[in-house]
Write a sequence for this structure.
């Protein structure tokens, strides 16, 4: 059999691809198979992070008793009210559907974060506009630490300064919250 | 530079051979993932909402004029021919994922091609900065200021505790992926590459081939990138990458020096053969080309051969990729014709 791509060398690699339940077989020579694989990324065995991750999440979903009835009942799992993504689909594809999914599936994602990142709290960049409140909260927390340290060192004047700064920021934060309600 | 010029020239900001440690580090890339709060993530979007995302980003891009971040130009993926789209992948300006379902996707480029923004890839926005040599800090600063300007117009999906929300939980938090393209022929020749790379992966960094996830390393080119995106600051992540890179650079250099000292004739022979084949061969596969380019690059870095300008090899690497050859010859090519065309192009460029 000759390679169906270059039609020169004998076909030694037989690739089977299943897309949407359609089976497709290709008979290629080795150099063509290699080129084909680097050109068509989707073709490579999907041993990527998404799948590993889905496995991690799925593990928690799977019923340890494996009884058919119970399995059926939990098969779709919870569903995100905003985008309609089900737990099961997340477990299959490893992608969340929208920002809301993070709060909907929050408890279950927690161990996933710990496994991937070893952490569950963001400490990096905060967007200027959307994250204004977070920025202030972070500042307040920092000042509270400084205040505590100042008190411990009995530097009360400095401590008073920190206290005033905290009050100022808390006022700002309160103001913004009200603005949101209105 | 307009998009038409971008897809006609192999040269790009990252191919110039400038930047620190450019004997080992070919390029530095930083990308961040951002999503718009009001839309579901791209894989859950209808065609109509995908178009709305593109419109929203387009508006934000228009608002960046006179903000000191240069000129940004947006192009819908549907406006390009398949070959042009593939060329953007071959130039590393977009990922192969942007080619799937391309009608709902767009790309934004700045004038020197150092910055590109993919729209509706896995996340609504994937901003990347690609620079030559070891310049991760510089890449992050450029990217962050563009991110700040866009955020004046766009509402990002951001959570107080989790940071920037992304479609895949592996990107949540900073959404940052910093990566380096490294040329490691010395370590490969002294058979220490697997040891070094497995140490790197134990430190929490991923090692990949040239064209991303799941691809093989050809021409002794390796990509290393961070895996953790949550719980560390962007600066810490980059500093960690740089310190690992410095160690790899040091061991690569000592491997090269040892080879040059102890096996000088072998090295000169190797480089000379690569030069000879590339200058005279009539049929060259892409794999063979990558291997020979690696030898040539090593020869230049060891001063065995000094006729080659620093940017030429990187440009040749891009020019000899399938889509580029197609574009230059202006017609469809069979794999065999491609190998002939490739050899011809290399001969011309090295003449």
């Amino acid at each position: 059999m000759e390679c169906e791509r270059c039609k020169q060398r004998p076909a030694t690699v037989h690739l089977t691809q299943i897309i949407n339940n359609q089976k497709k077989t290709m008979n290629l020579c080795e150099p063509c198979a290699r080129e084909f694989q680097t050109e068509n990324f989707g073709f490579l065995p999907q041993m990527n992070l998404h799948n590993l991750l889905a496995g991690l999440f799925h593990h928690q979903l799977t019923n340890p008793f494996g009884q058919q009835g119970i399995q059926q009942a939990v098969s779709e799992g919870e569903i995100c009210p905003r985008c309609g993504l089900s737990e099961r689909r997340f477990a299959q594809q490893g992608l969340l559907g929208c920002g809301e999914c993070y709060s909907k599936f929050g408890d279950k994602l927690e161990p996933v974060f710990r496994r991937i990142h070893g952490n569950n709290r963001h400490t990096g960049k905060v967007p200027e506009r959307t994250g204004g409140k977070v920025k202030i909260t972070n500042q307040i927390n920092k000042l509270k630490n400084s205040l505590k340290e100042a008190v411990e060192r009995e530097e009360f004047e400095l401590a008073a300064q920190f206290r005033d700064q905290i009050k100022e920021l808390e006022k700002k934060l309160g103001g913004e919250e009200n603005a949101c309600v209105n | 530079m307009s998009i038409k010029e971008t897809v006609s020239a192999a040269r790009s900001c990252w191919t110039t051979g400038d930047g620190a440690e450019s004997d080992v580090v070919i390029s530095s890339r930083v990308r961040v993932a951002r999503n718009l709060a009001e839309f579901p993530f791209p894989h859950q979007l209808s065609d109509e909402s995908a178009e709305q995302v593109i419109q929203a980003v387009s508006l934000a891009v228009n608002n960046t004029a006179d903000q000191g971040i240069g000129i940004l130009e947006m192009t819908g993926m549907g406006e390009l021919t398949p070959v042009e789209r593939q060329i953007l992948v071959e130039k590393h300006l977009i990922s192969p994922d942007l080619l799937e379902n391309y009608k709902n996707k767009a790309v934004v480029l700045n004038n020197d091609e150092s910055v590109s923004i993919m729209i509706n890839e896995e996340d609504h926005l994937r901003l990347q900065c690609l620079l030559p040599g070891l310049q991760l800090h510089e890449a992050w600063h450029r990217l962050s200021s563009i991110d700040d300007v866009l955020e004046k117009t766009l509402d990002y999906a951001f959570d107080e505790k989790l940071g920037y929300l992304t479609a895949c939980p592996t990107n949540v938090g900073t959404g940052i992926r910093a990566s380096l393209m490294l040329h490691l022929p010395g370590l490969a020749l002294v058979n220490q590459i697997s040891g070094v790379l497995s140490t790197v992966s134990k430190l929490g960094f991923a090692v990949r081939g040239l064209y991303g996830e799941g691809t093989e390393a050809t021409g002794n080119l390796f990509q290393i990138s961070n895996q953790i995106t949550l719980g560390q600051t962007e600066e810490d992540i980059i500093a960690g990458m740089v310190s690992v890179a410095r160690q790899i650079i040091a061991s690569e250099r000592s491997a090269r020096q040892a080879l040059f000292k102890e096996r000088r004739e072998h090295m000169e022979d190797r480089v000379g053969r690569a030069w000879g084949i590339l200058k005279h061969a009539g049929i060259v596969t892409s794999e063979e080309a990558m291997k020979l380019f690696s030898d040539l690059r090593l020869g230049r870095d060891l001063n065995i051969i000094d006729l080659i300008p620093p940017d030429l090899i990187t440009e040749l690497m891009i020019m000899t990729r399938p889509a580029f050859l197609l574009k230059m010859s202006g017609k469809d090519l069979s794999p065999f014709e491609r190998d002939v065309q490739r050899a011809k192009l290399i001969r011309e460029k090295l003449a």
